Amino acid sequence: RGGYPPNSDPAEYSFYAHACFPTARDRKSFFNNYVGSTTPFTGYRLLPLLARHGVLRTIWTTNFDGLVSRACAAVNVTCFEVGIDTQHRIALVPALGELRVVSLHGDYRYDELKNTTAELQTQETELRNEMLVELRDHDLLVIGYSGRDLSLMTALVEAYGAKRAGRLYWCGLQADASPEVKHLLNT
Predict the structure, then answer these.
(1) pLDDT in the model for residue 111
(2) Whose CA is closest to 68, among 97, 46, 89, 88?
(3) In this structure, what are the phi and psi dihedrals at residue 158, rounded to the nearest 5 degrees?
């Protein structure tokens, strides 16, 4: 009833984000309150340790919670964040022991977030292009991502459909993976 998307529908998150918080300002306020009291869990706390030992140098994320940078600060690992309003930082190459965190959908603290279907249809061009360049020579480990963001999935299909690309490791793949993820994995 009421035109709600079915459970697990790819548009579910976008629909409810817009229905509950109709303006970008409302969504920012909600996430500010929600994420502000959250602390990095084990997986986040391991990321700066991997960076410190040169195993990891960049995090590409659709999350906008700032938890990676909080985890880095807790163990004195330099983290530089790249977002919609700081795209010029994308060219910075992290030194050994540093971590670059690229927030593809913005950062709730500073940027206009991308939460709704219309907002998610395009990635910021400079961030997308750098991701494509990086995926030519580096492996990608995907953890906890549904594949519902068509603009990101289009970029990944482009990267892994090219003649030259690093390896792709998709962790936590469910039997009911989205058609976009299945398409990518068959590319």
Answers:
(1) 46
(2) 46
(3) -60, -45
